[in-house]
């Protein structure tokens, strides 16, 4: 797989930040170049980038320094080649000392933590209180599974949503880590964050967060913490500590195999979905149940991927729909058709090209199943991917090949060629021609099979529509 493509798939469900750091030290500067530097729109799809000294990486801005101590000015432009960012790469790539790992706080206990573990309401209050030390927040969150009541899922997610919305405004006065996103942090909002920190009045600087006051700094003060490092988290502003602890609690409390999964999902449906931000919270709550999916959840997912008001929620749904399908241990046979409908409607729906490409990447994955043979081919999906990948109206031949025809090949038992993500994009036209030859020979059979699939797919769609209407 190509550089950015390898990074994309490495960072999927269950991946660890340390692996991202190790890969990103080599790939992030190249991926940044693919995104066009500080001002260009990021590409919607990964693309192999030649790893050579001639790669078109824009030069790093001259690193400004603080007039007080000569340290790098962390409020400067986001760019992976600044001295500060390179030093941060190195720092994040080092192994943790056992004494500073957040995960090692699980065994920490004392009276205040024990009192917090009496109920999930007490637990959420404890981990979000300004005065709680980070080590205690994390310890309580990591031990909270036995205490947490699934009925408090909406409260937990609302608190996370409030903290994320606030973070977007000022980022707590912290510079994004170079390895924080799959490629690089989006540099476009950063100047606005820095300007707000510098220009806010005293009244604007005083924020009310989860019912408590917090004062934003006047400039960028430090790096965003490594969320696996307890010492860095403890030095962060208390609202960010609370956000980190709530995420730990969400992962810790999420249902394990056959334990409270229905109660958890019922509570998730009490989260409103009137806006994209609200819908994202529902998706996060539902996806916390990794081993189980219900038709009602799929109905909500389909509503999101077919409604232009919910682009980020649709992207979040589609980014893991293949994994959800593979791990749906209790899924009835007709659920496979519902997953297929989800992708069909996403590929033909109102969202932009980025969402369609995300759906296309998931097509081969919905054929997978845990510990067994693949589900049967879906000719309807193969036809959609083929027609989109062979459409000459899109002049980016590499994008058509990589984002649509490669997934089609992976979804076929007997593909026209073996996909190679490391191939030179200059050869895209030749591979597209080979696929077209294969498609012309097999189109009639695919169309016959798609017609045979239509009753089951129509029934699955009708079932999802009925469930979503309730």
How many DSSP E strands?
4
The computed structural class is mainly alpha
How much beta, percentage-wise?
A: under 5%
Task: Characterize the biggest β-sheet.
Answer: 2 strands, parallel
How much is the radius of gyration in Å?
24 Å
Oligomer: single chain
Overall pLDDT, averaged? 83
Q: Uncertain segments of ≥5 residues (pLDDT<50)? A: 1-69
Compile the SSE list and pairings.
Layout: H1 3-10, H2 17-34, H3 83-93, H4 111-116, H5 120-128, H6 134-142, H7 153-170, E1 174-175, H8 190-199, H9 202-205, E2 206-209, E3 212-215, E4 222-223, H10 230-234, H11 238-253, H12 261-268, H13 276-287, H14 295-305, H15 311-319, H16 321-327, H17 333-347, H18 353-362, H19 379-389, H20 397-411, H21 428-469
Parallel strand pairs: 1-4
Antiparallel strand pairs: 2-3
Helix pairs in contact: 1-2, 2-3, 5-6, 6-11, 7-11, 7-13, 13-15, 14-17, 14-21, 15-18, 17-18, 17-19, 17-21, 18-20, 19-20, 19-21, 20-21
Output the keywords:
470 residues, disordered N terminus, mainly alpha, single chain, two-stranded antiparallel ribbon
Q: How does this structure look, described?
A:
There is one protein chain. With 470 residues, the protein is an all-alpha fold. It folds into 3 domains: 3-58 and 76-93, no CATH class; 98-251, no CATH class; 276-469, no CATH class. It contains 21 helices and 4 strands. It has helices spanning 3-10, 17-34, 83-93, 111-116, 120-128, 134-142, 153-170, 190-199, 202-205, 230-234, 238-253, 261-268, 276-287, 295-305, 311-319, 321-327, 333-347, 353-362, 379-389, 397-411, 428-469, and strands at residues 174-175, 206-209, 212-215, 222-223. A two-stranded parallel sheet has the order 1-4. A two-stranded antiparallel ribbon has the order 2-3. A hairpin with a 2-residue loop joins strand 2 (206-209) and strand 3. The longest helix is centred in the C-terminal third of the chain and has 42 residues, at 428-469. Residues 1-69 have low confidence and may be disordered.
